[in-house]
């Protein structure tokens, strides 16, 4: 693997959804998440991290150094077991027979944490809490963090009634008088353009080993993650624009809020509801970028 990154980054990700549900709320009957005070749509940071993880797993399978720790249906204690086993193998038989001291336990956890960072992309990228009784590998604070995404304009949350032409059991069929139709509902929004902010810390990258190769893979994931995440509720989601602010130093050359303010998104026709990204004007005020900041637009 290459050396850890040496520059701080911030980024703005713009993505949209058409006739779909970008992030259902389990507390709200799986309706699209919404800010009740403003009506703007919301998606969680976890929602985007899940799609990044799925993309990396799709590209690299379950191979080191880009394995995924928090994968769907994973048993985390078993995912950590190889880390623990590798540490145990280093002990000689005399030490294995003795009761472990507090210092020895801390050293084992530290080595397990290093092993996890070295072998799992999402651990060295997003961090993880792995401090449990079984296969304890401590905690890792990841260098990459994402904010909640928020729609540029308020969204309209709708439900469509759908008909199921079959039932699961004979009992259900009898309840419906021999008919095999049942009714259901599908939540969606007609359109929403969402904006997420992200942060990448060089000092934390040194602690986890997050490298230039990892950074490239992360950018690729943000750009392509929706292309491989199609479902009945997310048929048309797309990453529309990724704007990256690269600092010339490790600790940074400007405050993140000032950099985010350089990216503006305005609706062109304010008399009609937006239905496509072309209904917006997206501008980047490159001329106002502080000294030491490189503005990179992807793809």
Structural account:
Strands 1, 4, 7, 8, 9, 10, 11 and 14 form an 8-stranded antiparallel beta sheet that branches. This protein has a two-stranded antiparallel ribbon with strand order 2-3. Helix 1 crosses helix 8 and helix 2 packs across helix 4. The protein is α+β, with helices and mostly antiparallel strands. The chain has helices at 45-60, 76-90, 93-97, 102-119, 121-126, 170-175, 202-208, 212-224, 256-260; strands at 9-20, 24-25, 31-32, 40-43, 127-130, 138-141, 144-146, 149-154, 158-164, 182-200, 236-247, 263-267, 280-284, 293-298. The model has no long low-confidence stretch (mean pLDDT 91). The two termini are 25 Å apart. The chain contains 9 helices and 14 strands.
Radius of gyration (Å): 23 Å
Average pLDDT reading: 91
Q: What structural category characterises the helix and strand content?
A: alpha+beta
- Tally of separate domains: 1
Question: How far apart are the termini?
Answer: 25 Å
Work out the number of β strands: 14
Low-confidence stretches at least 5 residues in length (pLDDT < 50)?
Answer: none
Strand proportion? 25-35%
Brief write-up:
Helix content is 30%, strand content 30%.
Task: Label this structure with key terms.
two-stranded antiparallel ribbon; 299 residues; alpha+beta; eight-stranded antiparallel beta sheet; flat; 30% strand
